[in-house]
Write a structure and sequence with these properties.
With about 425 residues, the chain is an alpha/beta fold. The protein is built from ten helices and 16 strands. Strand 7 and strand 8 form a beta hairpin. The protein starts with 18 loop residues before the first strand and ends with a strand.
C-alpha cells in the first residue's frame, strides 16, 4: 500500500468541507520540517502540502500564524474503550482470565465508543490507537485499531481505522504476553502456567495445533482443486476451528503480533518461538530490557519494533532494569522505537510528553517526534495512511500552541479525517 492523494477516505462524513491551513511550520512525522507552507485537507485526505496553495470554493481557511502543525499522534498500546472511565468493575473488559490462552477473543467486541476518556485523549493530539487485550494471558486475543472521532452512529465498527476498506486489504492484530503476568495470574491459583517453562510449552502446544490446522486446510484446498479440475466436488467440508482461526491467520502472515515482554530471557524465548513456527513479531511492548539485547532482537526474521515507555519503571520485578536512555540505545542499534501509554496506566492524553522526555534523554527532536507518529503507524501496518503529514495520508492533523516537545505543549485544534474535533 502507498499513500494515494486521489482517493476519498471512506471514513469522512459526506458534509465535511475542505480546510486550508496557511502559514504553518510542518513537522511531517518522518523527520522532515517545512516552514511557511500550507496544508490542504479534502475528502478526509491531505491533498497537498506546499507554498501558496489556492483555496477551492467553500474551503475554510485558517491562518495558523507560523505554528507547528503535525500528524495526529498514534498510540499503539492502549486499553481505551475496554478499560473505560470512570473505572468500575462493570467497565473493565481488558483480560479474559478464565484460561491462559484466549487468542479467539476480540477487543472490538468490548470497545465502548462512549468511554469518556476518548475525547480527553484526543485533546492531547492522539488521533489513532491500537486497542489491545490485557497481559494476564499468554495469548490475550485480537486487537483493533480505532480513530478517536465520535461518529453519529455511536458504532465501534464505524470508529475502526480500516472501516470501509475491503476485508482482504485489512490488517489484523494480536496480543500475547510472557513473563511475570501470566504465571502470576494462574500460578497463584495452582494452575498452569506456574513458570516460564509452562508458559512456553502452552504457547508452543497451541501454535502446533494451529500449524496442523493450517496444513489440513492447505491439503483440503489441494484436494478440492484436483477434484474440481476433474469435474467433481469434494464432499468433505473445509476444516475450521474458531478457537484456532486467528492463530492460523498469524501463521499465514495476515496478523501483526504484539507481545508484552520485559526481560531479556523472555524476549529471547519469543524470538525462538517465532523462528520455530515461522511467524513474525511486529512489536515487543514495554520491553524495558530490550536495550540490553539488540542482537537477540536481530535474530528474528524481521526488524521488530520496541514499543516502550520513556521513563516509567520500577512498578514490579520485571521493570527494575530500565533505562531512560533505552530509546537512544535501541535506535543507535537500528531498532525502531515507538513510545506508548498503556492507557490508562499512563493517560494517553499526555503521549506527546513521552516523546519530550525521550528527547531530553538523547533523541533528536525529529527522532522523538517519530516515536509517536510514523514509527507506531508503520509497526501497525498503517504507515501508508496515518502517522505522517504528507499528501495522500489521512487528514489527521494537529495544530500545536508551541513546540510539541516543550513542557506543556497543547493542541489548539485536532482534525481527524479532516473533521475538526474542538470548537
Amino acid at each position: 500500500h502507498k499513500p494515494d492523494v486521489n482517493r476519498t477516505n471512506p471514513r469522512v462524513p459526506k458534509d465535511t468541507k475542505p480546510v486550508l491551513l496557511r502559514n504553518a511550520v510542518v513537522w511531517d512525522g518522518q523527520g522532515g520540517v517545512q516552514e511557511g507552507v500550507d496544508v490542504f485537507l479534502k475528502d478526509g485526505v491531505i491533498k497537498a502540502v506546499g507554498h501558496g496553495i489556492t483555496a477551492e470554493k467553500d474551503t475554510k481557511i485558517i491562518d495558523v500564524d507560523g505554528r507547528i502543525v503535525g500528524p495526529g499522534l498514534v498510540d499503539m498500546h492502549s486499553h481505551l474503550g475496554v478499560y473505560s472511565w470512570p473505572e468500575y468493575d462493570g467497565t473493565q473488559d481488558t483480560n479474559e482470565m478464565t484460561e491462559p490462552l484466549t487468542p479467539f477473543v476480540r477487543s472490538l467486541d468490548a470497545f465502548n465508543p462512549s468511554d469518556s476518556a476518548i475525547k480527553i485523549v484526543a485533546s492531547g493530539g492522539v488521533t489513532s490507537v491500537l486497542v489491545l487485550p490485557g497481559s494476564g494471558n499468554i495469548m490475550g486475543g485480537e486487537a483493533f485499531a480505532f480513530k478517536l472521532r465520535e461518529v453519529s452512529t455511536t458504532s465501534n465498527e464505524d470508529m475502526l481505522i480500516q472501516a470501509g476498506e475491503p476485508k482482504e486489504d485489512q490488517w489484523r492484530w494480536m496480543k500475547m504476553a510472557c513473563g511475570e503476568n501470566p504465571k502470576r495470574v494462574y500460578g497463584n491459583q495452582g494452575l498452569a502456567p506456574m513458570t516460564r517453562m509452562g508458559e512456553a510449552y502452552l504457547l508452543r502446544e497451541r501454535l502446533e495445533k494451529a500449524r496442523k490446522l493450517k496444513e489440513d486446510q492447505e491439503d483440503w484446498c489441494s484436494a478440492a482443486q484436483t477434484v474440481f479440475s476433474n469435474g467433481g466436488r469434494l464432499e468433505s467440508r473445509f476444516p475450521i476451528d474458531l478457537r484456532l482461526e486467528s492463530l492460523v491467520s498469524l501463521l499465514r502472515g495476515d496478523v501483526l503480533l504484539n507481545i508484552h515482554c520485559y526481560e531479556t530471557h523472555d524476549i529471547e524465548a519469543m524470538v525462538r518461538h517465532s523462528l520455530e513456527f515461522n511467524f513474525t513479531i511486529s512489536a515487543f511492548h514495554h520491553a524495558l530490557d530490550a536495550y540490553r539485547v539488540p542482537e537477540i532482537l536481530k535474530r528474528a526474521a524481521n526488524n521488530i519494533t520496541v514499543a516502550t515507555f520513556a521513563d516509567h519503571w520500577g512498578y514490579k520485578k520485571e521493570a527494575f532494569q530500565a533505562s531512560p536512555r533505552a530509546p537512544k540505545i535501541l535506535l543507535d542499534a537500528g531498532i525502531p522505537v515507538a513510545l506508548k501509554s498503556d492507557h490508562p496506566v499512563l493517560n494517553s492524553q499526555h503521549l506527546m510528553f513521552e516523546a519530550a522526555k525521550s528527547a531530553h534523554y538523547g533523541l533528536s527532536a525529529q527522532e522523538a517526534f517519530k516515536t509517536v507518529t510514523s514509527v507506531p503507524a508503520n509497526a501497525m501496518g498503517l504507515g501508508h495512511r496515518i502517522g505522517s503529514l504528507k499528501a495522500g495520508y489521512d487528514a489527521d492533523v494537529v495544530v500545536w500552541d508551541r513546540s510539541p516537545l516543550a513542557l506543556g505543549a497543547t493542541p489548539l485544534q485536532v482534525f481527524v479525517d479532516g473533521v475538526a474535533l474542538f470548537d
